[in-house]
């Protein structure tokens, strides 16, 4: 991820190094190169525009000062603005004053929600919490058993409807008896209270594309369990589509934070660089592989340093 963006940005900034002073034309040329590099990396156009405008304004106004030569000053400005579009500070989970803290996961099918549920459970367990995973993805065949497997690996309990239960949901398209995910979510919270789990992670169904039924179901679960955090799970490989998906989830369900998955892939990184600016919501966690330990809190400054090499 970010390899080509990183190469282009560091190359462009390196070209400035020999210069004792930077003219307006030097800054314009540099900004043009940065703009192209960002667009090629699939960063959303409004994000590119505001980023370049800020760099230009700050670079032109920069005083030749102290220890930094002009080229170093531009690098510093680009770094600071990158940290800015990635969210500035790391945003931590807000735990509820009265447990359980309810964390709901939302996102498209295949974005990595179920895997994330296990990762988050393992990470929380490592911090002394006692999470309960609640299986409300009753749409995707195998999602419930997958959650049970990741829960077991993470050492966390899983609450799932018993096979064959039907709580008013009727049969789904697979001919299986379907429970109502909203009811399962409610029961999951009651189970967490009864068994004194201090965090509940609610996995929800995702479709391959955005649809109203999916949004309605997620909104129903949200209203029933009043989550403290709603994490929108975004596959970083999805390129320009990521922005559209994020906006649709923001309008349909709303979320308090973003989890970027598949950052280990070779995507161009535009989703990572756009989602915070477009939605105004912080990127809170990063998932970097299929194993449960391939997961960490998201640090905007570390990501910016990685991009600038
Ligand atoms: P869900 O449909 O949103 O629940 O998605 P899953 O959790 O089932 O993940 C879909 C696929 O992506 C699975 O094959 C996961 O192993 C894989 N996956 C999830 N997160 C990551 C990640 O960070 N990196 C990589 N390389 N694969 C991931």
UniProtKB/TrEMBL annotation:
Single Gene Ontology MF annotation: GTP binding
Subcellular location: Cytoplasm
Source organism superkingdom: Bacteria
Catalytic activity reported: GTP + H2O = GDP + phosphate + H(+)
A biological process term (GO) from this entry: SRP-dependent cotranslational protein targeting to membrane
Alphabetical keyword list: Cytoplasm, GTP-binding, Hydrolase, Nucleotide-binding, Ribonucleoprotein, RNA-binding, Signal recognition particle
Keyword Signal: no
Primary localisation category: cytoplasm
Binding site for GTP: 107-114, 203-207, 261-264
Keyword Hydrolase: yes
Domain SRP54-type proteins GTP-binding: 282-295
GO cellular component: signal recognition particle
Protein function: Involved in targeting and insertion of nascent membrane proteins into the cytoplasmic membrane. Binds to the hydrophobic signal sequence of the ribosome-nascent chain (RNC) as it emerges from the ribosomes. The SRP-RNC complex is then targeted to the cytoplasmic membrane where it interacts with the SRP receptor FtsY.
Subunit composition and interactions: Part of the signal recognition particle protein translocation system, which is composed of SRP and FtsY.
Free-text note on domains in this protein's UniProt record: Composed of three domains: the N-terminal N domain, which is responsible for interactions with the ribosome, the central G domain, which binds GTP, and the C-terminal M domain, which binds the RNA and the signal sequence of the RNC.
Family to which this protein belongs: Belongs to the GTP-binding SRP family. SRP54 subfamily.
Designated name of the protein: Signal recognition particle protein
Protein encoded by which gene: ffh
Portion of the full sequence shown: 1 to 309 of 525
